[in-house]
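Project standup — Tuesday

K.O.: blocked on the structure for the chain from last sprint. Re-posting the sequence here as requested.
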Amino acid sequence: MRLIFHLLLLLILSACSVGGVPAAATAIPSAPAVAPTHIAVAPSVTPAPPSVTPAPPSVTPAPPSPTPDPYADLAPLTIAGLRSRTYGGGAITFVRVLEETPTFTRYLIAYPSDGLRITGMLNRPHGDGPFPVVILNHGYYPLDTYQTGNGSKLAADYLARQGFLTIAPDFRSHAGSDNAPNVFRAGHVIDTLNLIPLAQALPDAQPGKLLMWGHSNGGAITAKTIVVSEQIAAALIYSPASSNIAEDYAFRVDRARLRTGQPTGSRSGVIDRVSIEFPVTPDAAPDLYARLSPLGFTRYVTARTMIIWGDQDETVPRTWPEDLYQSLRDAGKPVEFVVYPGQPHSFNAAGNAAYLPAMRDFFRAALGG
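H.V.: unblocked you, prediction finished:
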């Protein structure tokens, strides 16, 4: 009995011990020894560019200042300068009668030119006008020997007998004209240009464009005039001095040296005058000399042109009239170049007998006559 009692008690105690242990189905798993590492990732942000000092606003650089023209005071004497101004003002004054001929009357006249009083010779045909007008530009003469009409009288008288009113200016510093410098020989061109509108205003002048003749230096004056003025219907250029002003300078310096017997550059007599008329040399100012020369501006010519030259010319080489002819031809201008065999710088009687009627016919044709 006691043995059974003790066995029952042992079973009861064993049961109590087992009931205190949780069932396997409800057991909580033990935590792992190491928790997982969680890496916090910040939101992706584009990093700011490194700090840069802002560039100043872009500024277009100013163009370089033009180099000042060291010869700006001479610009009015260039072809562009002569073309940019006006001419005329005042009127032609009949000073006195110089001669009465069976076919025309010769007068001494005067007219204003840039404040100067310029004298000259006018031939008026007898009879009722109006008459076609011809301006005649004489060549070089020493100032102390020149007289009104020198160098132009033969052609002027011939044309007057043919019914043309002719005017031959003396130019500044010649005969009774006022004295003034003739820098780069442009003063004589200005005297011619100032005469044109005054001649057109004469009561006896045929309305419209006029005609022009020039010999030697007067031929060079005429060549310059026709690239400036559009009031010339036709021009006859006879044994002209060079239309390249650098060549003209060299020619005058050499002639001055030969006449004085002094070396080039000596400062006396006519050499003094060369240095006054050419205040800067071609070597020092080649661009200025190009702007002074009519050869580069023949595109402006509106006149019909006839150039004549004698192949025995002792003063003017063939290249001078030929260069002018070629320049006019290249510019598409109506031009003739006529060579007279055996004729010197100033034609002899046979040459005059040939060219004067040809000139008359050329002028009449240019006026539509």
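K.O.: great, moving the ticket to review. Residues 107 and 353 are 26 Å apart (CA to CA). Residues 88-244+293-366 form a domain with the Rossmann fold fold (CATH 3.40.50.1820).
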